[in-house]
Design goal:
The complex is a heterodimer of chains A (171) and B (533).
Chain A lengths: L2 H7 L1 H13 L4 H9 L7 H17 L5 H17 L4 H18 L10 H40 L1 H13 L3
Chain B lengths: L3 H5 L29 H6 L21 H15 L1 H9 L11 H6 L6 H16 L1 H6 L10 H11 L7 H5 L6 H14 L5 H13 L7 H19 L14 E4 L10 H15 L3 E2 L16 H17 L4 E4 L4 H13 L26 E3 H10 L15 E3 L3 H6 L4 H10 L30 H22 L3 E4 L2 H14 L4 E4 H8 L24
Parallel strand pairs in B: 1-2, 1-3, 3-4, 5-6, 6-7
Helix pairs in contact in B: 3-4, 3-10, 6-10, 8-10, 12-13, 13-21, 14-15, 16-18, 18-21, 19-20
The chains are: A mainly alpha (171), B mainly alpha (533).
């Protein structure tokens, strides 16, 4: 059994462990809700995080499409960028996976796995961290850009009317 | 230089263990609204006027602030039976806990409606119940301290009074009213926000929240008339302050000054011209919204009175109201006890179809979607749906028209008759279960954007679903705050989806008698979607 096969076999266990670790970063009352409510519209955060984790995991194993990976990870970062979550905490979600993977490949059935294979995966995880960091910062920039745009839009009509008035007066 | 291990100390992945009874709030930029400017506090003669910001360490409260709050609480308990009932009756079943959009988007347990209410209830217990006085903390009672007051401010200005939580309360507790009471108490010691006090003060001074003076009000109508002439070749009338008109039309002021509200405004004017409605606008009542409602009942009452005073002065028969949100809660739930009954007016009857609006027989005020839906139902309008073909539309039930007056079907009926492509968002996110835009009740300030984006997540998440599934590119709604807040929200969460009013869609589809060939929609964009490839 190679590493990829092992990780595909243990996919659902690893994902649920990973998801729980992230939810536990929220206050306990919120974490319970985020973990248990399964309706994607009543628990958008839980859904977005789980969807994102799945897509990161599948992408790591060469299963997912690039666009799905970008869409889902961007959504997680988008949520975290407006919450009381620092960039370091937001990015840490991907490093949690390293810990979980280490545990997951300890078992008997996986003795054949080479350290090189695992290290290769860890390198990919580090790359994902960089992507997530860029996304997080991109979201912060979006917030500032949108705020400025909103202030401009509020006056948009007034400015347009002033323009028309000036034109009428030949200014 | 610090070593990596030392730096790592600041990265804390595990949340602190906190007891909700210990108040602790931090006012970080982007997550709270600015305090009200002095001149507007003074204009409204509010207590303890001063230049003040929530992030100040010293809030410069009056010396006897605690006494003022507790006396105010005693007064309100006497005055509003509902307040005492809501304080006593909650069994903390938790049905409301996960219904608040701010809780869903932030994960902050104090945004659970039950816990937000407990912030006030714990003080009520301490000073107004025997158990609280005897057993203190054991009975869930807290001393009123400055930190508790700051916490009230922080969380009562993180509630948009959308009333989604109250839909689920088995006891019918209106958590929104608890927030209203909390804000009213804060106002007694001069703690209020710019985005509420300034519009309310403007409304007293000029008749509308934006502070548009009469001549600019008139001028903006002239611009709209010119724009409609360019679009359709027809010069519409927009009568202002015309005595003896049958109907007084009142809309939120953003409709005639902000974007994308403006296109809804054009839609109203075109519709009224086309059906030949005998109506008038008013400068004095040039505001449908009522920011007093987010401040105190007294201020809400004073602002609401203007509409009725103007209806009396202009001798109209009844009032038609535009696409506004909280105006309808004020009218439907409070008007009758504020300033009613409006028995000098007549029960509204549509002069075009003869339909009698018995549902409005007490307030004498009809919602424009009821009026337009009735016109369409009676085949009074010539509508060309294909003019809205570039839009794949979904509908956001604005909280107040949905939950306060139960207006679900009329806007949908209009949209289905003006658009070929309409798609509903998932059932548990619409109608009475609709998710708030996250910016109502005075929280729509740009400085509060981060908090608004958190609160808007559940709504945006449902929009994203219909965007991916059906290619939706337009979110219709009928509330001025929605139209102001949702574009920013969608730009962040769901880029590519725009926002419009229901009557913008009507204006686009309306085939007017004698109109020229229409190539553009009200936004001046080509009517048909650009051909791909």
């Amino acid at each position: 059994m190679d590493l990829r096969e092992v990780l595909l076999e243990k996919r659902s266990d690893i994902l649920s462990m990973w998801s729980n670790m992230i939810m536990d970063q929220y206050p306990p009352d919120a974490a319970v809700f985020y973990k248990t409510e399964k309706d994607r519209f009543l628990n958008p955060l839980g859904y977005i995080v789980n969807e994102g984790l799945e897509s990161i995991y599948d992408w790591l194993l060469g299963e997912g499409k690039n666009e799905d990976f970008r869409y889902a990870t961007d959504r997680i970062m988008r949520v975290m960028a407006v919450q009381d979550i620092s960039p370091s905490k937001a990015i840490s979600l991907v490093f949690m996976l390293k810990k979980i993977l280490k545990e997951a490949v300890k078992g008997d059935s996986t003795k054949g796995i080479l350290d090189e294979e695992l290290n290769g995966l860890y390198e990919k995880i580090d790359e994902i961290a960089l992507v997530l960091f860029d996304m997080y910062m991109g979201c912060r920039e979006d917030i500032h850009r949108i705020r400025m745009g909103e202030m401009r839009k509020q006056n948009h009509r007034m400015m347009k009317n002033i323009d028309v008035l000036n034109k009428r007066k030949g200014l | 230089m610090e070593k990596p291990d030392e730096l790592k100390k600041d990265i804390d992945l595990i949340p602190k263990k906190e007891d909700w009874m210990d108040p602790e709030v931090e006012f970080k930029k982007g997550r709270y609204c600015y305090g009200a400017p002095l001149k507007h506090q003074q204009y409204l003669e509010l207590p303890n006027p001063r230049e003040w910001q929530p992030s100040d360490i010293d809030w410069r409260l009056p010396e006897n602030w605690k006494e003022i709050i507790l006396n105010g609480m005693a007064d309100l308990l006497k005055k509003n039976r509902s307040f005492r009932l809501f304080m006593d009756i909650c069994v903390r079943c938790g049905a409301c806990a996960d219904k608040c959009h701010f809780f869903l988007g932030s994960g902050d347990p104090k945004n659970m409606p039950v816990l937000r209410a407990e912030l006030l209830r714990s003080v009520y217990r301490r000073y107004f119940t025997l158990q609280g006085r005897l057993f203190g903390r054991l009975a869930g009672a807290r001393e009123l301290t400055i930190d508790v007051l700051k916490e009230w401010f922080y969380y009562f200005y993180q509630c948009t009074e959308c009333r989604r939580c109250s839909v689920y309360c088995p006891y019918g507790i209106d958590t929104c009213e608890i927030t209203m009471i909390g804000r009213e108490l804060l106002n007694l010691v001069g703690c209020n926000i710019q985005w509420v006090v300034e519009p309310a003060s403007n409304c007293f001074r000029t008749g509308n929240h934006l502070g548009v003076p009469p001549h600019a009000f008139k001028e903006t109508f002239d611009f709209a008339i010119d724009e409609i002439k360019d679009l359709t070749g027809i010069k519409v009338e927009a009568p202002i302050n015309r005595k003896g008109a049958e109907v007084l039309f009142v809309a939120p002021s953003a409709d005639y000054f902000a974007s994308p509200h403006w296109f809804t405004f054009l839609g109203y004017l075109m519709l009224f011209h086309e059906i030949g409605l005998d109506y008038t606008w008013s400068v004095y009542a040039s505001e449908g919204g009522n920011f007093g409602l987010f401040h105190s009942m007294e201020l809400a009452k004073r602002l609401n009175a203007k509409i009725y005073a103007e209806a009396k002065r202009l001798k109209v028969k009844w009032i038609l109201g535009g696409e506004c949100g909280h105006m309808w809660r004020t009218i439907h739930q409070y008007m009758d006890t504020f300033n009613g009954p409006a028995d000098f007016l007549e029960v509204p009857v549509s002069p075009i179809t003869g339909t009698r609006f018995d549902n409005a027989k007490s307030t004498k005020m009809v919602h424009i979607t009821e009026f337009t839906a009735d016109l369409i139902y009676n085949n009074m309008l010539n509508l060309d749906k294909t003019r809205n073909d570039k839009w794949r539309v979904t509908f956001h039930d604005s909280c107040n028209p949905a939950r306060s007056i139960g207006l679900f079907e009329e806007p949908r009926f209009i949209i289905k008759n003006t658009c070929n492509h309409f798609f509903e968002m998932p059932e548990n996110t619409i109608k009475e279960m609709t998710f708030c835009c996250g910016s109502g009740a005075g929280l729509g300030a740009d400085e509060n954007l981060e908090m608004r984006l958190r609160g808007g997540l559940p709504r945006a998440n449902a929009v994203d679903y219909v965007r991916k599934r059906y290619g939706v590119n337009m979110l219709a709604c009928m509330c001025a705050i929605d139209k102001a807040a949702l574009p920013a929200l969608l730009e962040y969460w769901v880029p590519g989806v725009e926002v419009c009013g229901v009557h913008e869609l009507v204006g686009n589809a309306l085939v007017m008698k004698g109109e020229k060939q229409r190539d553009t929609n009200l936004r001046g964009e080509p009517i048909m979607a650009e051909e791909k490839g």
